[in-house]
Structures are given as structure tokens and as C-alpha cells.
Amino acid sequence: MRGDEKIFMRRVERFQELLRENDIDGAVIRTLSSFIYFTGTKWLRPSLLIPAEGEPRVFVVRNEVKTFRKRSWIRDVVEYQRVEDLMAGVVSWIQRNGLERVGLEFGVERDAYLLFLKLFERLNPTVEVVDVLDLTMKLRMVKEEWELENIRKAGKIAKKGMKVAEEVIRPGLSELEIAAEVVRELMLSGSEDPKVYVSTTPRAHAEPFRDMKVPENGVVTVVIGADWNHYYANMARTFVVGELGERVREAIEVKEEAYRIALEETKVGVPLNTVERKLADFFKERGFEREYIAGYTHGVGLLIEELPMPTIVVPTRAQRVMENMVLSIIHSPLMLPEGTIKHEDTYIVKKDGLERAT
Known about the structure:
By secondary structure, this protein is α+β, with helices and mostly antiparallel strands. Helix content is about 40%, strand content about 20%. The chain has helices at about 5-20, 30-40, 65-70, 85-95, 115-125, 135-140, 145-170, 175-190, 245-265, 270-285, and strands at about 25-30, 50, 55-60, 75-80, 100-105, 130, 195-200, 220-230, 230-240, 295-300, 325-330, 335, 340, 345-350, 355. Helix 7 (about 145-170) crosses helix 8 (about 175-190) and helix 9 (about 245-265) runs antiparallel to helix 10 (about 270-285). This is Proline dipeptidase.
């Protein structure tokens, strides 16, 4: 498996301590990133059962057991052939262990489906379901050194991908063609699940279109998430094609200045919304209040975007910056009619400042 198994065993033990402190009898982990966090490996579809005390159990499809055990420290691995067998196994585990309060993650991630929650409640009518997202993210927001090493490696891969983007962008090329070249470079460099977004028009979150093409005069924004051992680094750049309009030129200058302000203000102990307010005031003073999207940062780790996520999860704007957090700065773009203006890098928070990973 990748990484020392003791890392993942300690994580489960710490999570079990949090479960007991919150009077939760056990948790059913279905979100992929948390499954990776505790087991040490990526596996579709994830089904991890963690009791407040005792050994965790994983369910995998028939004939996957041998391979899974090579990639994870968990020994209690049960196979199933039909999804009905999986659900019956989960119900049996809950009943056999006498669990009354069971944790699930109420997130926005793949496999955190409302459908699964409703099915779980129907199969376990006497069980109280508790959201444990705050507990898992309490562990995940502050990174261990092994995680930081993976993110640094991912950052080097992301930079290689961005260099390819810079080299290939030209008028007439489609967003999809640009993304394909970047993804190829990222994968050949070891990124197993890269995320690449390309926008030739003003779109904040731009999965590439085959029929959107680079104009003769305009801007192209590329966002890259490269992973190493499932840990991401996130970066974004805006490329100028042809002649700049005055408003675009001014927006780029303002964005660079805002980037510097964000780096100066993001320090251990500072609430994220304190920095956010300063940036909002700055954009207003410079005449870009209407183009600015609120929320200047987000966490980076097993997801390209994870808690704290001020742009989406408003309560996390009050989160204070902590040492060994990994943050993407400055996330929010300026949305102009000519295109999206963005400059974003991944930083590791240290007591004496920010360490740049991309």
C-alpha cells in the first residue's frame, strides 16, 4: 500500500475518539475521499464501516478482496455479489453491534447521495442518523507531513500541465483540445485522476466544451487539479491571446494586486472572513465590485476543493487559518464579458508564512 499503515490506523483511532466524544456508536463511510483517508486506497464504490470501538470493516465486490488487502491495512474485508447483499451486510453489522446512533457524511461529494440516505433510513428505522462531516473534516483540514509531501509532488505535476497549456493555446483550438493535451501530460507524470477546466468565455466553473474555441483576441483560463497518491494541488492561470482591451488589462493588474494582499493577510489564527472583507473592499475601491465572486480561498487535499469552502459553505468563512492547512489562493475569479480572470495557487500554511506548492 502507499504510505505507512500506521498513518491510517491512527486516523481511524482518532475518528473513533471523536465518535465516542459525540455519543455516536459508529459510522458508515460512503464518500470516496474519506474512504481513502481511512483505508489508504481509492476504491469504487466505497463502503467502510467504523465502529466507535473495534476494527473497521470494508465491503468490496466478489474477487476484489485479494487486491484490496494489498492496497490497504484493513483486514476485515467482506465481499458481495449483489447490491442487496451489501445493504443486508451493513444492516446486519449495525444490528449485531447494537448501534443506535450512526454517522453518515452529508456532503456534496460523489456517492454522498440523498438516495442512499433515504434507503439507509428505510432499512434501519430504529437508528438515529447523525451527520459526521464536521468530524471527518476536523481531522482532514490539518495535514500530516506525509500528506504535505504528496501535495508538493502534485504541485510539481500541476506546473508541468500548466506549461503545456501555455505552449498549446492558440486561436481556433477548442477548450476540449487544450484540456486533452494537459490531461495527457498530467497522467503521464503520474496523476491518476486529474481535473482540468478550460474557459474561453466568462464561466466560473468551466468543464471544457468541444465547440468553444480560442478567439483571435481574448483570454483563456485554465484550472488544473493534479493528484499524487490521491492528494491534489490546485492552480489556475489566465492566458492573453491577441490584443488586450483596457478593461481586461486593468482586471489582470487588479487581480495580481489582490493576490498579493491575500498572501500577506492569510496567517495562522486569522479568520478567513477577515481576509475576505479586505479583498471585497479592495475590489470595490478599484471598481470591480460587480465582477468579483465572494470567497477567496478553499481547502485542498483529497479533493481539489474541500473544507473550508467559503465560496459554497458560507459558515466556513469564520474558520481560522491553522498551521498545516493547505489552501488555494486566490480562488475567486473576476467575471468579465471578455472572459474569466483568475490566478490561483496552492499554499501550505506555516507559522512563519505560506509555502507555495504550485
